[in-house]
Amino acid sequence: MSLTYWGSFLYPVKFLFLPVHRLGFILDIPFTNDHQICSNIKCLHGRCFNYLNTKETFCQCEKGWSGQYCNIPYHCTCSPSNSLCVGMLNNNRSICICRENYFGSKCYVRNRICDNNVPCENNGLCISHDDFMLSSSKQKYYCICPKGFSGSRCQVKDTELNLIFDKDIHLSHSIFIHFLRIIPIDEYIPRIPKPSPSRSTTLQTISQSTN
């Protein structure tokens, strides 16, 4: 289990006396992870980086080190096979990022809801819910569907639309496709006003190698 570092943001908490903090920010995540490395000789066992949204800097510590200047050694107590240890809190408690279907402060507890009869169809990835996830569904898991499938269990095959053009028609590099959906008269309830036709538009890029 590994993570690729992309960048860090700094948003200070202004009112420390409040028991609960609800912070709302818009993060402008860059397309590339070109880290802005700085120079700080105080980073003993780490590297100096700039925050993406401020001019302030911080020390990104190497494995086994923590503290403002990466000068405090620590021993991670997270599960070595089910988690990724990313640091230590002030009370010497390890910060553990659990892999899918594992939870607990040290990621040793496994949620086996996804082991029962493989609820996701068509090679969908089953992820179990935990108590900290906000969901209106009573389902105790959700499925990440592969391309071409959707639904709560990836059981629905997405509709495909194949367009074939005559070889003598010259096509540009992109094409706009307009869809117009009209509900037939036998598919709506008579007492409810008939909905108006709905229209949607999509832009598709045509590859140079497409015949």
From TrEMBL:
Entry's Gene Ontology cellular component terms: plasma membrane; protein-containing complex
Pfam families from the UniProt entry: EGF
Gene Ontology biological process terms, A to Z: establishment or maintenance of epithelial cell apical/basal polarity; heterophilic cell-cell adhesion via plasma membrane cell adhesion molecules
EGF-like domain sequence ranges: 34-71, 110-155
Name of the molecule in the record: EGF-like domain-containing protein
Top-level taxonomic group: Eukaryota
Annotated S-S bridges: C38-C48, C61-C70, C145-C154
Keywords: Disulfide bond, EGF-like domain, Repeat, Signal
